[in-house]
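Observation: inputs received (chain + biotin).
Thought: call the complex predictor directly.
Action: predict_structure
Action Input:
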Amino acid sequence: MSASARQTLSRIETLASVNSTNDHAWQLLTDGNKSPFVCLAEQQTSGRGRRGKQWQSPAMGNLYLSLFWPFAANCPPRGLSIAIGVTLVETLNTFGINNLQLKWPNDVLCKGHKLAGILIESRYNGGYNTVIGVGLNFRLSPDLQQIVDQPVTSLEQQCSQLPCRNQLAGQLIENLIEAVEKFQCNGLNDFLQSWHSMDLLFGHPVEISNDAETFSAIAQGINANGELQYLYKGQLMSLSSSHYSIRLSL
Ligand code: BTN
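Observation:
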């Protein structure tokens, strides 16, 4: 990891086992850490995904990482998931992992199967304390049912040679810090074009649903705020809430 990344972080903690690196980060925050830090774990006993789902996290050499970042009150982290998704894909590309696409808001898919997930949580307290959680599958346990409604994959299944996890983690942390700093200065300007080239959904019929409703639309990429744009009954609409789930229609 570069000297500048080390200077930015007040702490990097590696844990054998933890309930969830995101929960651990929130705990460290209540213990008084207020500057950026990272925690990683070999295993999570209650790993969490988006929309209240479980993220199964066995000790199989996978990456479970959380970065805490305090955003100022004038820089709400709206759309940050776009910048983080792009950064994760670009980092994986530099390790020779290709054929990756992003599904709004930030699922990383390899040939249609979920390879990595991102869980961003933000709490306002005069500024926006934010925990960016990243889970990346190096190996799947045979009984793994990570995302019940989506096929999953791992680097082991997709690469002829597995990248070194520590090297990848170090590079990813460095790139995430750079991305967050760019986002603070420029919002999503530096990420929109890359997103477009990685967008799984663009131009495709999709089903958009939450607990209350499901409707069909045509995905139209994202806008400058990172909201999903879609055509619904001939009208261009946008969706900001990551509480929705999006599926490609068959
Ligand atoms: C998703 O796709 O639903 C998001 C999954 C995010 C999983 C990561 S693993 C590290 C961090 N700690 C957690 O409990 N969740 C995130």
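Thought: report the result.
Final Answer: Helices lie at 3-8, 21-30, 80-94, 155-158, 165-186, 192-198. The radius of gyration is 17 Å.
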